[in-house]
Amino acid sequence: MSKRTAAPRHRRGVPTGRRRPVLVAVLATVLTGGVVLGAALLSRPGATPVDGASAPSPTTYRAHLPPTAAASASPSPSVSASPSVSASPSVSASPSKPAKKRTPVAVKASARTIPRTSYTAWPTATGERAVTATIEVSGTFDGGLKRFRGSGSLGTDGQSEDQGPLFELADGAVLENVVLGDPAADGVHCLGSCTLRNVWWEDVGEDAATFKGTSASATYLVDGGGARNADDKVFQHNGAGTLTIRNFQVAAFGKLYRSCGNCDTQYERHVVISGVRATGPGKVLAGINANYGDTAVISGVTLTGGDSRDITVCERFRGNSSGAEPTELGSGPDGTNCRYSASAVTYR
């Protein structure tokens, strides 16, 4: 009996054309699950939205950090975002270590003081000119270091208050490189602000220079130069404003500076004296009227000569407008009218 051969079974399968949609569906399911899982992770504690954010977004969430790091990264109005740099001078860089206060660096007083002057020798005149009428100056007058001496009505060197000057300077004028010889009459008059630069008086007459500006803002500058043989005053301040005398030499004098003690019209006056060398005999460096609010600020002064310690650095008076002799009130630094320290004066 012959054996029956079993017919082969045909395997039933999915047609090739139907496989692709199935794969696509599976992949979509996997991706959807991943999105859901990611959203769940982001919603865990520590992944909180930034203040003011209304919807989750990669730019409005902070990354999840370990507890210690999250604590330091949590927003706080009083702590800066960086642990090593302070956000402002008043905010600490770390909650546990307050920012160190900065100590201002003090500027040494010597850095602000005027250096000692290297004084030049008295100049030799380059020529000579006789002055018979006052030379009126507006703008700048450069004398080229010629010697100017009074002649005729200006040929006096006494103490008369009515003498005319060799030079009269308009407001804002500059007189420079001039030697005033003997006789010098009443020297130089400044009708307003002026500058006297490198001006030398060989033999002072009534006064070397008189300052007459009537404005409280008037400024007068004597820069360099020198004066000697002044029986009374070198610089007479009759007007208002401030006179600065710097890098100047004076020898054999009565007073280097005097605020008028009995003028008909009185003003508050100020003088700044710096880098001056005074050689005795001499009486007073600065004389001021305390009752009118005058001040004298003095620094970098050198007093020389055998009797240099007899020179009064700053003397205070009670001035008047009656023409009477002013009253002496005292001398020395007081912090109000006479402003200087002991170190401002050197004796040699």
Give a brief outline of the structure.
With 348 residues, the protein is mostly beta strands. The chain contains 3 helices and 21 strands.
| Structural class assignment | mainly beta
Provide the succession of SSEs.
HHHEEEEEEEEEEEEEEEEEEEEE
Radius of gyration: 45 Å
Strand content of the residues, in percent? 25-35%
Mean pLDDT: 77
Spatial gap, N to C terminus: 156 Å
The major beta sheet can be summarized as:
21 strands, mixed
Bin the helical content.
10-25%
Furnish the topology, listing elements before pairings:
Blueprint: H1 16-42, H2 67-73, H3 109-112, E1 128-131, E2 135-137, E3 140-150, E4 167-169, E5 173-180, E6 188-190, E7 194-201, E8 209-211, E9 219-223, E10 226-237, E11 241-246, E12 249-259, E13 269-274, E14 277-279, E15 284-289, E16 295-299, E17 301-304, E18 312-318, E19 327-331, E20 338-339, E21 345-347
Parallel strand pairs: 1-3, 2-4, 3-5, 4-6, 5-7, 6-8, 7-9, 7-10, 8-10, 9-11, 10-12, 11-13, 12-14, 12-15, 13-16, 14-17, 15-18, 16-20, 17-21
Antiparallel strand pairs: 18-19
